[in-house]
Design brief:
The chain is an alpha/beta fold and about 240 residues long. The chain has a domain of about 80 residues. Helices cover about 55% and strands about 10% of the residues. A hairpin with a 4-residue loop joins β5 and β6. α10 packs across α11. Zinc ion binds next to α7 and α9.
Length: about 240
Amino acid sequence: MKIKYKILAPLFRKKSKLECHQVLLKSNSYYRNLSDVHKANFQLRTLLFISTTNFSSEPGFLVNKKMKIIISSAFVQITFGLKTDTLKKFNDVFVAPSAYSYKNNKAVFKGDVNIATKKVNMSWPAIEKGFKITDDALNLSIHEFGHCLIFENHTRSYFSKIFNNRDFENWKNHAETKFKKVKAKENKVLRDYAGTNLIEFFSVSLETFFEQAAHFEKNEPKLYASMTQLLKQDPRNKKDPIL
Ligand SMILES: [Zn+2]
């Protein structure tokens, strides 16, 4: 275990860690497959993320501990190989009881990240479904936190970037090639929504990276490799994904 987490470990109560373990074991397949050492680390990162995030909802809808653990686990999963274990700007997560829409806009959302308010909005049924079905490359929380990472990485100074600059440039090169394929409908791996723009492309790639890793690697080995390099992990190694 890294020194930072050795120091952090006693700060969280045994009961919290156990509760975290039990919820994750049931709801997060990535966690379920990890080695015991990684599981312990994952719990700490989840509790740390919860402690730095404000969760809210509409009156009458309570965001309980279990929901916070499930939502946070998506962020921990994406960043498990990275030094970054919390966000600096997107610290508000609004959990809607169902899909929602905005004033003067008919579109119905299951989730979105608001750059102006720095709020992450997600609807609970879609969050749950994302984790329940583990192999359809659809996971709302992973998708939305993917946006947060791109936005924060962009605004952070050179020395506090989330992603290594060279790794990010390398990913972008492969992503742009694949992006053209998606736009031309010559794509087998990523769903069409990835062709919206490079930001959506990243989030859709993340969902596929975690939920259909082998299929992704087989069909787009270079893009897949650039993602393992960027995130410092390979989810095909389920017990020990860290590189
Ligand atoms: Zn999106």
